[in-house]
Amino acid sequence: MVRNYVRKTKRQEWCTESMNAAVDVVVSGQMGYRRAAEQHGVPQTTLERYVAKKRKDQQNFVVDKSVGKFRSVFSQEQEIELVDYLKSMESRLFGLTMMDFRRLAFQLAIRNQCQHKFNAASEMAGKDWMQCFLKRHPTLTLRKPESTSGARAMGFNKVAVAQFFHLLLETVDKYKLAGERIYNCDETGLTVNPKGHTKILALKGKRQVGTLTSAERGETITAEICFSAAGAYMPPMLIFPRKRKQQSFELGLPPGSVVEVSDSGWITSELFLNWFKLFVTFSKATKENPVLLLLDGHATHTKNIDLILHARENGVILLCFPPHTSHRLQPLDVSFMKPLSTFYEHETRTWLRCNPGKVITILQISTLLVVPFKRSHHENAATTDITNNTPPSANDPSTAPRAHTPTEPSISITPPATKISNLRKSTKSPLTVSASDILNPLPGCSLWKAPNEFAASGVNKKSSFPCLSPEVALPIPKIQQTVKRANRKRGKTAILTSTPYKEELEAAAAAKKVSQKMKEGVKRKIIGKENKSKASNIKKVKRNPSKKVSIKKVDSDSSSDETSDVECLYCCEYWSKSVEGWIACSACHKWAHNACAGVDSEDDEFVLVCEQCQS
Question: Please, what are the domains in the chain?
């Protein structure tokens, strides 16, 4: 079938309804052939033929225009069902590719005995049929999906979002907050070597097309960005991976920006507290005129007791997003960070083209950030960003966002838009979440038990396909088993400046200090010489001393993997930080320093049996 078929005849330009009306008036004797054909705009010879058919078999008479060479494989009702099926699969994060859908169309045509001209060798519908299908249904298009982890797919559910918006609406209504007093802050990374690249013009058929970059990986700095719902942008704070500040870091900075340094270039609790003090000055927050700051659940935000105390003293209300929901709820993530990274990549490409023979270092990042930062907040106004993420009616379950569909496989609802100015109207009655609304799993990471967790959601009884429907050929995934969860405490949406959360955080910090003191209070016990005689007939397992390797210090707030390193039985010092000789227990095979175990480094025949194994 050709993609752009042009009819070469004017046959069958008449309407089916007009033909039926003309046939009825002729059969009833109200008009003749010529008058009925002229009045209803149909060919007279065709009218005579249909009148003869109706007089011959009036019960089975139907006006059929399906004459010609080209016919659609599926009926209009079947294609509409296919469109709904594709939308349903995409909303559940299991969207079909072109190849998948062409294979599905071939299976449906074979099993339902539809006349087709598909290629039986490849067992797929043709590309021309696919293009014509998309033209007949312009609501469908080919999109590049964004990666969504299982934790985010399960964490963004109706209960978690309802709890967050309940706290948000309650806070807005309690303090009578306007748009200029609602802020959102987040961190993003800026590297000398951006990941994404814009498509360029090149020779058609060329095997490989390249573009110049500054390094294979490059260094990364962190930018702290904040704006209000009224469109006020706070100058960013840049964090460089250095020990000391340099004046060269401040060259070309956006006006009012601040430079900080950390060992890794990441945000820390101390640096975020420094930024927060600047935020208090920028927002002019006081206890009499409080402001609301929305932030994610990073440890530098939620586990920072100094931050919470400073916020309570200055009238700043901290509201944390639910875990694994910032990709949908946080305004900065939704519509600011992507334009910023796109414009920043364009600036790096322009800089390399204008400076041949040079590469970008972290000293140029400040200058390159100025134009992308301005373009981003001009292209995406903060008022639009935050307004698009405001909640629907809190008491109307029918307004649940369609993005909840991955956690509700059998529900598909589209929400109406609600403006920030209507937040107070939706808080007249308290939010109630019934037990039936609680989804499984709850927000957070999920441990999926087995790969065979998904099963068919059942056959669609109202399907227009007589033998095989799309839901049966390729079932919509549906979780049937109860997902087991790890037994650990997870983050939650909460007002961080509230008294219950503050007391809970202080209690957790006190308990942590007690446990650390108990570990530090354990004395090193040295095995006496009498233990040497007990294991004289066992071979010694000794680890040769190695040269100490300098390890880059990582801040306590950043992610580190020291738990995978070997630690001493007695002093708990890690192997990677030691320069002494080590020896292993012959029973439990755990390691210890020679000095801690009371072993002479020159004694090659000594065998260690630790006190735990002896007891």
Answer: 150-200+210-437 (3.30.420.10), 522-615 (no CATH)
